[in-house]
Amino acid sequence: MDNLRARLTLFAQSALSWGMYLLAFLLPTLFYLRTYDSAMIKITTAQLGALFLVGFWVVKTIEMGRLEWPAPLGKILRPAFLLLVWTLLSYLFSSFKIASMHQFVQGLIFLAAFMLGALEFSSWPSCRRLIDWILASSLVVSLYGLVQWVDISFFPPQPASGIDPFIWRQAFGDRVFSTLGNPDLLACFLVGALPLALAAFMGLRNFRSLRSLLTAALLPLVIFSAIQSYSSKGVPILFTVFIFVGLTWKFCKQKTKALTLAVAILAVAAILSVVLAKPQRWKERVTYDISFLKHTWTGTWNMIKRNPLLGTGPGSFSVVYPEFRKPEIIKLEGRHNTETDHPENELLEVWSELGLIGLVLFVWTFWNVFYAAFIKIKQYGLDHEDNTLWLIALFCSVLGLFLSGLTNALGTRFVAPGFVFWLLAGVLGGVAATSLESNIKFSVYSIPISIGLSRLAYVPIVGVLGYLGCGVFSWFASDLKLNEAIMNSKQKSWEQALSLYNQITPGYPTYLMSQYFQANVYADRAGEEDLERAVEQYLKVKQLAPHYVQVDHRLGNIYAQLNQWDKAIASYLASEKLDPIFKENYQRLVWSYLQKGERVKSQEVYDRFLKFHPNEKGAFEDFIKMSDVSQSKTQK
Question: What pTM did the predictor assign?
Fold first, then answer.
């Protein structure tokens, strides 16, 4: 029996380690272009991987007959565990469970990655192996970025073909986005990869093997891809390079100092040369980002002030925020059906969703990690230079991603590089808390039942994990169906579209979108009883997310077609609060008041319209005529 327990424990440990290595490699590199969201394969892989990892950790714990961790690790795990508990409680009392389910689940995965990273990868051998897998993924990402640059520079644009064989080639013009699917995501990922690549380069002793040659090539490839993303979200790269140089200068030997400084100068020079070569482009990009952040943060702060202590629930920012969005954001983005999924600041997002309690736990978690790491770097010093260099790299990698998250939620909230960020943060905390410690005591909590009885727990555990796994596959299938449903909607194949929309699973990342599009199908088809069905469907969307995109405006259109003018007016007024610059909404609101003979109120609407469109000042009668035309288009 003891032999079986030992073998099962060893197998679970091995499966857990390899599962984490593969996740760290696959999440940045995987993509699949037949789904509605090309990143859905990343989301699915993260969810299945998390179930796999948690499952084998449970097996390991049961077979060992105890739950244990090094006592110094408690200061790293304690705030993260409390943050996990608070997240679960907050979701339990959330008013937007279905709409926020995807982000809630993703938050749990990130916290699981953090804690497993601290528990299972706090030794230098396992830590270094994990870093090797992340460097391998960085190499794949950077090589595909190079392929995209060649395609952009030397081949014609779409619809012609080029060296990039995938349908998304040149999707962002001349900006490289690689396997991350977005230039900003690519820049964020490379912020975390650069310090690790720099440490790997510094550790080279010769260039005789293929591995050493690939390691040497990785650093310039990472820098090149970051530059060609043309993303201001990569600015933290400069900060991480400066911090890396500062720490190595303080705690490493003279030879390492000189080499680090030389490489850093070349890296910074390469980045700055590209910025200076196209200063106007970077100026426009930075100006846009600053304006977007200013107005988004202002709206988020107004949202926080409504419920500062408890927040609105994990994953609910995108549901609640439209009520507080500033009109300037709509002007910046140039469209009225805009969505803002994140406030582009991790601290503001945590505060808005989990309240001040969640923010304190979040800051406590990362303060402990960074403080422990800095103290350990000082302890390592010159006597353990190799480990000192890697600890500095790990510290700069996590810090760079953390800083990136202060101006761009993609770095910490999206599944890649978010998973890598949380995983490396846990590993950094684990290494910092336990390495160089002698006579480490363990916190041990024995399972107070026999191994035979404890193994009976495998039955419900397998059942729960299997059920959740089926749910993950259901979400992935839903993304495929949504892609097909949208295609059928565009082709006016209404029945096929409705059938597919009805098969989409609640909680799926774009479930709200599918329900909204289903209502649009009823509205566009406009057959017998379709308008009433559209009203029911739009109201269902409002129950899930009261301010989703343009649901109020479209609901007002349906009420107007049904000659229910009071309801139409109420819907248009609700739409005006969310988007006070939408011209068509004003036109239809004016028309609705006129149908009730309330010309004074229609004049008041026109006056409000002029506040946001002063250059369109003209005769009120002309505006009425435009409103008449707008309404006629709806009724057709």
Answer: 0.93
Q: Which of 113-117, 282-286, 296-300, 348-352 has the lowest mean pLDDT?
A: 282-286
Question: Phi and psi at residue 207, in whole multiples of 5°?
Answer: -125, 40
CB 368 within 8 A of CB 429: yes
- 434 φ/ψ sector (left φ>0, alpha ψ -120 to 50, else beta): alpha
Token output for 172: 């962002």
For residue 506, with 0-12 CB atoms within 10 Å meaning exposed, 13-18 middle and 19 or more buried, which class applies?
middle
Average pLDDT, the chain: 90
The answer on pLDDT for 438 being more than 80 is: no
How many Cβ atoms from other residues are within 10 Å of residue 509's Cβ?
Answer: 20
Tell me what pLDDT residue 581 has. 92
Residue 36 has pLDDT above 90, yes or no: no
- Burial environment of residue 402 by CB neighbours within 10 A (0 to 12, 13 to 18, 19 or more): buried
**Contact predicate 291/332, CB 8 Å:** yes
Percent of the chain with pLDDT over 90: 64
Output phi, psi for 212, to 5 deg. Answer: -65, -35
Q: Which pair of structure tokens corresponds to residue 283?
A: 């100026």
- Helix segments in 229-253, DSSP class H: 236-251
Sign of the C-alpha dihedral, residues 100, 102, 106, 108? positive
For the beta carbon of residue 290, count every other beta carbon within 10 angstroms. 12
Q: How far apart are CA 221 and CA 36, in angstroms?
A: 30
Q: Which amino acid is at 419?
A: F
* Amino acid at residue number 226: A
Give the Cα separation of 407 and 346 in Å (integer): 8
**381 vs 294, more confident:** 294
Contact 237, 271 (CB under 8 A): yes
CB atoms near residue 532 (< 10 Å)? 12
Whole-number Å distance between alpha carbons of 333 and 193:
30
pLDDT of residue 636: 46
Query: For residue 495, what pLDDT band results from cuts at 50, 70 and 90?
Result: very high
CA distance 296 to 578: 14
